[in-house]
Design brief:
This protein is mainly β. It is built from two helices and seven strands; from the N terminus they run E-E-E-H-E-H-E-E-E. The longest helix is centred in the middle third of the chain and has 8 residues, at 68-75. It has a seven-stranded antiparallel sheet, with no helix packed on it. It has helices at residues 42-47, 68-75; strands spanning 13-16, 19-20, 25-34, 51-60, 79-85, 98-104, 122-136.
Length: 139
């Protein structure tokens, strides 16, 4: 068997509410955890909603109106569409799929940092996915 194609941290497409924020993103991980509800119905189990997906994202701080930081600050709590392409491709493909769905924009981001720090101030955020994540392998 030949080796599998590796994902390298050089490209990313992170489209949230129609805008790609890859240029502001330092780290983006789609994770999952148990849903946490005390009761799972048959409908929950059939829909696969016993697991909750979420994004953990680290990005640069920028108060530019079009920045990722400002998108979060101005839209905390909104439910919006997302498209996540870890390989950075514009169109989904068999070996380079996209992950799509709806997420809730997280809490207002941090602002500031240490004095005389070398490098850019950063912040971390969490966006919970609403419902299921869809794996899209074809255009």
């Amino acid at each position: 068997m030949p080796g599998s194609t590796r994902i390298y941290g050089k490209q990313l497409r992170l489209e949230i509410d129609g805008t790609d924020y890859w240029a502001d993103t330092i780290s983006c991980v789609l994770k999952n955890e148990e849903n946490g509800d005390t009761v799972t119905t048959f409908e929950d189990a059939a829909a696969g909603t016993t697991v909750k997906h979420f994004f953990e994202i680290t990005a640069i701080q920028s108060m530019d109106a079009a920045s990722f930081w400002s998108k979060i600050w101005d839209n905390t709590g909104d439910e919006v569409a997302f498209e996540y392409a870890p390989l950075g491709n514009a169109t989904p493909a068999t070996d380079a799929p996209h992950f799509i769905g709806t997420l809730e924009i997280g809490m207002k981001p941090e602002l500031g940092g240490d004095a005389n720090r070398k490098g850019t101030y950063q912040f971390s955020t969490r966006f919970d996915v609403i419902g299921a994540v869809t794996l899209d392998r074809v255009p």
